[in-house]
Amino acid sequence: MADSVYTFTEVVGTSTESWEKAAATAVERASKTLRNLRVAEIVKLDMDIEDGRVRAYRARVQISFKLDDA
Question: Is pTM, for the whole model, over 0.70?
């Protein structure tokens, strides 16, 4: 296996259904722009609240991806 270099980016996904859906949304959207995604780590979960009710679930996701060879 050749030497590789990885980097990461952090994205926030949202969903009105669940944190799991919010995290999946973040990864799916990132995959449309980034190549060679490797690992996703949930960094933070929170909720948007309005009038005492949960309006949306939010998942902050750190995604690593392999850099292209030069």
Answer: yes
